[in-house]
Amino acid sequence: MVMTVELRGKEVLLRPLTRDDAEALARAAGESRESYGFTPVPNGLEEAQAYIANALAQQEAGQRLPFAVFWQGRVVGTTSYWEVQPWQWPAGSPLQRTDRPDAVEIGSTWLAASAQRTQCNTEAKYLLLTYAFEVWAVHRVSLRTDARNAKSRRAIERFGAQFEGVRRAEVPGQDGTVRNSAYYSVLQAEWPQVRS
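Below the sequence we write its predicted structure tokens.
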């Protein structure tokens, strides 16, 4: 299921990531690298180009929908829908669909230092959640982060996602260790409360 989506809010635009975003992403990532200890963030133009090429290859494979985060007149980072999952329902189920996913994950989010701890990330997540629940009508939106990333975990919990647990030894960590991931989710029935 390869698709493109553009989401526009009051201050934030999430538009499909393109190869032309490499210089802007490199600038955004270069503002300060202090908060990127747990997150893979490109360092310099060459890494930004490779980051985008990888994201677009994952999109082509149907695994990811990567966005450039546009705020205050410039690209300040990136975020993605991951694991865009159309479920295989039992034969004849009226819930079977092929035009949109049943569940999705929001991830690979990083922002320039100047956009962190601002309304930018809140609005970006709101746009992603709104589209997932109100256009795709998904049953679940998942989020995950390095279990050691207390700042990211607090941000996820602040908007109402429920902690599901820690998946041990899930993926390589950004620091070269084996990462444990903290998993969170919002269900369709919980969305009205989270939205408010």
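The chain has one domain: 7-195.
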